[in-house]
Amino acid sequence: MTINFVETDAKKIYDDIIINFQNALKNVLYPGDERRIFLEQEAAVIVAMYNAINDSARQNLLRYAKGEILDAIGEGRDTPRLAAQKATVTVRFTLSSLRSENITIPSGTKVTPDGLLFFETTSESIIYAGNTYKDIICTATVAGTNHNDLIAGQINTLTEPIAFVATVSNTTTSSGGSETEPDDNGIDVWSGYRLRIKLAKAKISTAGHELGYIYYAKLADANIEDVSVTSPSACEILITVLMKNGELPTQEILDKVLAACSSKTVRPMTDFVTVSAPTVVTYNITATYYIDPSRFSEVANLNAAIAKSVEEYKTWQSSKIGRDINPDELRRLMFNAGASIVDLTYPAYTILSETQVAQIGTTTITYGGLK
């Protein structure tokens, strides 16, 4: 439900103005009357002013606040907006041969995939005598998402030579980089910063309740989309984490969440906390759809819309932990996109546990023609 502090319906405001003036003048203002024309122009100004007043008043509510106003509400609840974060990646530094002395990798040593993006070591590391390599966690030199998703082997250039170091190569996919935490629209979507502000009151207790762990887990990284907290046995807490777009978290992300939820001010002494990626349940999509003959001229556009609806379903299905695999949602989206009949073979309705997430396997969508 939309909250309005003042009337903003343009027609109602205009009608009220005309009626009030006619009552005051005790005369009817017919169309074409100069006084009525003047009031019509003033009505547009008043509507704009009322909308501005309404929007300004809404900014006091968490649902509608945005930008600096949302930041101010967050500050009042000790929940600042997350700043942009730097991506991290594990890089293997390999020697040209076995050495009898230690080889030092200085702090600030930079590696790059292309001479444009750079990662660096953040502390001094040592390849001890008798070893030929060392895996070192490197951090992007600048914050943001540009340094994400560099797959193993892509980061393979050392910017400045180090004696006896022959090669460098990342062994994990870079991840964790994010832009400054954005606003969502506050109406249809509550995620990220706005949701953390709503959950902020949960952090006051250190009794280990579910919302408290969810709050601190989401605080660990802005790319976390969903968190599930379960207790497999007495005093054992399992935190399951899912990233945006249904991606599984890397070990670096899991370590960050564990650290955030293990502080003395967060974790009760009796809780044993572990963090894990959700267990993947793979599903397939096999469907044939038809379009009503009366819409034959729209077939090309409808085919595109239906294909888009299938992709929308995949995103919806994989974006929340424990979301049951629901073929009815796929049917609904396809019907809304213009299909008249949907013959759906897979997926079948499947109940997921609180630590499972659905991910797509194969997709076979066939247009059956007009029917």
Features:
371 residues; alpha+beta; GMP Synthetase, Chain A, domain 3; six-stranded antiparallel beta sheet; three-stranded mixed beta sheet; 8 helices; 30% helix
Condensed summary:
By secondary structure, the chain is α+β, with helices and mostly antiparallel strands. The protein has helices at 10-25, 34-58, 67-76, 192-199, 210-219, 251-260, 299-318, 327-337, and strands at residues 88-95, 103-105, 110-112, 119-121, 125-127, 133-140, 157-158, 165-170, 224-230, 236-243, 272-276, 279-291, 341-346, 356-370.
Gyration radius, rounded = 29 Å
Q: Fraction of residues in helices?
A: 25-40%
**SSE order, one letter for each helix or strand:** HHHEEEEEEEEHHEEHEEHHEE
What would you call the structural class? alpha+beta
Give an account of the 3D structure.
The chain has 371 residues and is of the alpha+beta class. It folds into four domains: 10-58; 88-170; 205-277, GMP Synthetase, Chain A, domain 3, CATH 3.30.300; 280-370, no CATH class. It is 30% helix and 24% strand. It is built from eight helices and 14 strands. The strands form four sheets. Strands 7-3-4-6-1-8 form a six-stranded antiparallel beta sheet, with no helix packed on it. It has a three-stranded mixed beta sheet with strand order 9-10-11, covered by helices on one side. A three-stranded mixed beta sheet has the order 13-12-14. Helix 6 (251-260) links the parallel strand 10 and strand 11. Helix 1 crosses helix 2 (34-58), helix 5 crosses helix 6 (251-260) and helix 7 (299-318) runs antiparallel to helix 8.
